[in-house]
Design a protein that fits this description.
about 120 residues; disordered C terminus; 5 helices; mainly alpha
């Protein structure tokens, strides 16, 4: 979550760098999903990631949410979609929701045990 907050603080959206913002946001969510569900999220396409999660039954209940988010990011990154700043803010909230929702799939860590989320 920290990486998303840092992205927000950098004010990439406000400066109109939508492609950079969506690329960074997508990478942060992909990295998190990859770690949480032990899938190759960074190197796979959105379709490959979705198929892998469904096939391996990892994060299945969040696949549609993750896939919809990543497809939106792909449209900006690769198809030249030009979102508004408000749409970018909504995407940032969606990214935060995905991380929060996926985190609920895992039991609370024992006090003192690392969750692996300290730098997110």
């Amino acid at each position: 979550m920290k990486k998303l907050t840092d992205l927000e603080i950098r004010k990439v959206l406000e400066s109109g760098k939508y492609k950079e913002f969506y690329s960074d946001t997508s990478d942060i969510v992909r990295e998190y999903v990859g770690i949480r569900y032990q899938v190759n999220a960074l190197d796979n396409t959105t379709s490959e990631l979705s198929d892998s999660m469904k096939k391996n039954r990892k994060g299945v209940r969040h696949v549609e949410e993750i896939e919809a988010f990543l497809r939106e990011c792909d449209l900006v990154k690769f198809a030249g979609m030009d979102p508004s700043e408000m749409e970018g803010e909504s995407s940032l909230r969606s990214a935060m929701d995905i991380i929060e929702n996926c985190g609920r799939d895992f039991p609370k860590q024992i006090k003192g045990e690392s969750t692996g989320d300290e730098d997110r």
